[in-house]
Specification:
With 424 residues, the chain is of the alpha/beta class. The chain has 15 helices and 19 strands. The chain is elongated, with a radius of gyration of 28 Å. The structure holds cytidine-5'-monophosphate.
């Protein structure tokens, strides 16, 4: 599965384990949920204790395990009502037919059935049982009641069972359950971002990475850009609710969740693709790519053979992508980047004017602790005059944090732009 399971901060899952042979899989499920960044607290029924020890879950979750409804010690730590409030999701895996029946009937005679009634969080059940018990009319009737009560059911897998039967009733693999839980939180997060995010409703196009200019079929001219800043910005814009297209030169980075990626090689391809994206609709264009300034005038059809001590290769200037987009009649909000080794402010503001940008983010690449291949960056951001915005110094931080700050700066400038537009 290609889903990035690592970006759900600060969500709490109560994993309830009931008494079935599949309970051993729940230990791995705790690991997978923790890997995905969830806080996990485990509740065990009395039946579960016959299959696996609380110590296993305590060690894996890093939290004490909750077993009794009225255990004075547990209640002093986190009582059952507090636990019900703490949960962002109550996940019951494996769920026996007994607990399904209790939930359907609304009983509250132990910790888990009480939690079920006391929590406002969504409840997911992962039934796992003998295939005959799964097919039993009472079980199916209880399931139908739970679905009506908005409980989400992860359906059991078919296959051979511990009891020797073959059929429906196996608990799905922990990876698959963790994946579905993570995807659920991503979708919920996305729905909120699309409505309330700083870039909600905006189409953002980002160029990233180096370009590769062919000399012959095996050789090329390129540069050291890793694309990290552009990819971090793509992720930050998506998290802010935008629809994001990332036009990437050759880099070895994973595509951020939810981002459409189009791979290109040369500056000319990057320009063509950018113009194409403009036709599709683009509100914000962010040029982080380190586009090669020159390309080879005449790309050799065949591999150039070694001969003589010198080789002359004529180069011609590449088009300036960001400047070309900025000249279009229906132009998006334009953000450029500049990497300078000296006179940072002077060169950056010069580029802002020359390329007709709305905003430029500049870093000092003479510093070895930030910039190109580093995971950290520090930038100064300048805005075009009509925004009346002071320059912003973004202190040294991870490229993710810098990206988030740039999104805030873009949001602020867009706001001013729309105020200005309304006045005319
Ligand atoms: O290379 P330079 O310092 O001029 O780059 C400044 C900005 O212009 C960057 O945002 C870069 O992505 C963009 N640029 C471009 N096409 C080029 C050269 C630079 O879009 N051919």
């Amino acid at each position: 599965m290609s889903f990035d399971l690592s970006v759900i901060p600060n969500k709490n899952i109560v994993l309830a384990v009931t008494g079935g042979i599949a309970a051993y899989k729940s230990a791995i499920l705790v690991r997978r949920l923790k890997d995905a960044g969830f806080n996990v607290r485990v509740v065990m029924t009395k039946g579960a204790l016959a299959f696996i020890t609380p110590l296993t879950f305590q060690a894996l979750s890093g939290n004490p395990v909750h077993i009794e409804l009225l255990d004075p010690e547990a209640e002093a730590g986190m009582g059952h009502i507090e636990l019900a409030r703490w949960a962002d999701l109550l996940l019951v895996a494996p769920a026996t037919c007994d607990i399904l029946a209790k939930f359907a009937a609304g009983l509250a005679d132990d910790l888990l059935s009480t939690l079920y009634l006391a929590t406002k969080a969504p409840v997911w059940v992962v039934p796992a049982m003998n295939q005959q018990m799964w097919a039993a009319k009472a079980t199916q009737r209880n399931l139908a009641t739970l679905v009506e009560d908005q409980v989400h059911v992860i359906m059991p897998d078919a296959g051979s069972q511990a009891c020797g039967d073959v059929g429906l009733g196996r608990m799905p693999e922990p990876e698959s359950i963790a994946y579905q839980v993570t995807a659920y939180f991503h979708q919920a997060q996305r729905a909120i971002a699309e409505k309330f995010g700083l870039l909600a409703g905006k189409n953002v196009v980002i160029t990233a990475g180096p370009t590769r200019e062919a000399i012959d079929p095996v050789r090329y001219i390129s540069n050291h850009s890793t694309g990290k800043m552009g990819f971090a910005l793509a992720a930050a814009c998506y998290a802010a609710g935008a629809k994001v297209t990332l036009i990437a030169g050759p880099v070895s980075l994973d595509t951020p969740n939810g981002v459409r990626r189009i791979n290109v090689q040369s500056a000319l391809q990057m320009l063509d693709c950018s113009l194409e994206m403009l036709k599709e609709g683009c509100d914000v264009f962010i040029a982080t790519a380190a586009v090669a300034d020159y390309r080879v005038a005449q790309v050799a059809e065949h591999k150039i053979k070694k001969s003589g001590d010198e080789l002359d290769v004529a180069l011609i200037k590449n088009p300036d992508i960001v400047a070309t987009i900025a000249q279009q009649t229906k132009r998006p909000f334009m953000v450029g980047f500049a990497a300078e080794t000296r006179n940072v402010e002077e060169y950056a503001t010069g580029k802002l004017l020359a390329k007709k940008l709305d905003m430029i983010a500049c870093n000092d690449v003479s510093r070895t602790d930030i910039g190109f291949a580093s995971d950290q960056n520090a930038m100064t951001v300048f805005f075009a005059e009509q925004y009346h915005m002071d320059k912003q110094n973004l202190e040294k931080a991870s490229k993710q944090i810098i990206a988030q700050q740039l999104v805030e700066a873009i949001h602020e400038a867009l706001h001013i732009q729309s105020d200005n537009d309304e006045q005319f």
